[in-house]
């Protein structure tokens, strides 16, 4: 169905040039062509995450969740971990780390609301943490966390500050060096706008040096196994630990090249302008947005559908050729849906999305 547009929260709105770049034939991971694509991808990731010198990038097969679990490399038995959750993907950290011998303390906000900074300060003052984790854009609601305020509250109480930028890297400003973020995890298929299939990690070399006895991670996701490989690719050579997602890396290299051409500042402005256009259109239809106004992201918007079943609503929108995502917060099941507006999204996509919502509302009423 060529005329359908994907306004999902991930994979996000596609770009044909990026998609076609994956069509490579007879190319192995030790070829000079692939080595160059991987080098450009790793460099591009450092650039868009605001990582000055002293950070190491990783691209591993899998997805954002693989990148999340790989952070067990930084943990040892008995470590304390503080999870600051604004929804389903914040909660996922607790789900992952509960499988390991560490102590997880989690704070969770009400849907669409930002955690109270005084509650974070209190949790931070109660004990010392090996790791404090926050999600930049909580994809289950579209809330963008105030990273600066949160990091300021936990900095003195945590050795390693982690930010999940799966739904923000490439569409929201992320400044690892400036904010003193030690590690971020992301994925290929969201605001970067490449194909799904790779997890991304950017870690400070200081954090990497703090790894004790190889960490808690098992074999495949242990970053100590991936680091020498990434160093080789960064150096223009190649390395092997496990087979890289070759086609996906090609799309990442192309997407990052296009991001460089667009310019990160212009890209951020585009995301911000289109997010405002979308939100205004939604509110003009008297629909409510899930995230509270000062914390609305430029990449994802959750929308309440006022007594209509959300899965039926998005099914009907599909008839107008627009694919949205259903809600993902268990406590709001059936009450809201989500729009992804990141990556290659353009103004006509927003207009078409608003038209699809308007048409569906008038059909249902
Ligand atoms: C904020 C956030 N973190 C983590 C994930 C998990 O990523 P993946 O689905 O690529 O495993 C997602 C996926 O939507 C996400 O939005």
Q: What is the CATH superfamily label of the largest domain?
A: Type I PLP-dependent aspartate aminotransferase-like (Major domain)
Largest sheet: 7 strands, mixed
Counting structural domains, the number is 2
Give the terminus-to-terminus CA distance: 28 Å
Strand content: 15-25%
Q: What's the overall average pLDDT, rounded?
A: 97
| Spatial ordering of strands, largest sheet | 2-10-9-8-5-3-4
State the CATH architecture of the largest domain.
3-Layer(aba) Sandwich
The CATH top-level class label of the largest domain: Alpha Beta
Using the alpha-carbon principal axes, give the shape.
globular
Query: What is the SS-derived class?
Result: alpha/beta
Total helices: the number is 13
CATH topology-level name of the largest domain: Aspartate Aminotransferase, domain 2
What small molecules does this complex bind? pyridoxal-5'-phosphate
Helix content: 25-40%
The radius of gyration computed from the alpha-carbon positions, rounded to a whole number of angstroms, is 20 Å
Give the uncertain stretches in residue-range form. Answer: none
Order of helices and strands: EHHEHEHEHEEEHEHEEHHHHEHEEEH
Q: Work out the number of β strands.
A: 14
């Amino acid at each position: 169905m060529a005329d359908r547009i994907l306004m999902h929260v991930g994979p996000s709105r596609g770009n044909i040039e990026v998609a076609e770049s994956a069509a490579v034939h007879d190319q192995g991971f030790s070829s000079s062509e692939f080595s160059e694509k991987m080098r450009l991808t790793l460099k591009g990731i450092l650039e868009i995450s605001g990582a000055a010198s002293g950070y190491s990038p990783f691209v591993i097969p899998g997805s954002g969740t693989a990148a999340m679990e790989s952070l067990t490399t930084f943990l040892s038995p008995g470590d304390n971990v503080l999870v600051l959750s604004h929804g389903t993907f914040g909660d996922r950290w607790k789900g992952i780390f509960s499988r390991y011998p560490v102590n997880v303390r989690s704070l969770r906000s009400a849907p669409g609301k930002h955690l109270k900074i005084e509650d974070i300060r209190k949790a931070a003052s109660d004990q010392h943490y090996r790791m404090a984790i926050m999600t930049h854009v909580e994809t289950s609601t579209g809330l963008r966390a105030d990273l600066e305020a949160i990091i300021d509250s936990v900095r003195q109480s945590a050795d390693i500050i982690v930010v999940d930028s799966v739904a923000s890297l490439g569409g929201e400003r992320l400044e690892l060096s400036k904010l003193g973020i030690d590690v971020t995890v992301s994925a290929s298929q969201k605001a970067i706008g490449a194909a799904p299939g790779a997890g991304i990690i950017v870690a400070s070399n200081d954090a990497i040096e703090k790894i004790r006895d190889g960490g808690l991670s098992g074999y495949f996701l242990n970053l100590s196994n991936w680091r020498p490989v990434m160093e080789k690719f960064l150096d223009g050579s190649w390395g092997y630990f496990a087979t890289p997602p070759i086609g996906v890396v090609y799309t990442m290299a192309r997407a990052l090249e296009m991001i460089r051409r667009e310019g990160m500042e212009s890209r951020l402005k585009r995301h911000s302008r289109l997010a405002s256009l979308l939100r205004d259109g939604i509110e003009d239809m008297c629909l409510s947005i899930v995230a509270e106004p000062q914390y609305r992201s430029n990449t994802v918007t959750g929308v309440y559908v006022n007594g209509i079943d959300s899965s039926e609503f998005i099914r009907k929108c599909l008839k107008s050729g627009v694919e949205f995502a259903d809600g993902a917060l268990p406590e709001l099941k059936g009450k809201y849906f989500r729009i992804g507006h990141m990556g290659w999204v353009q103004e006509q996509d927003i207009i078409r999305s608003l038209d699809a919502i308007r048409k569906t509302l008038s059909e249902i009423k």
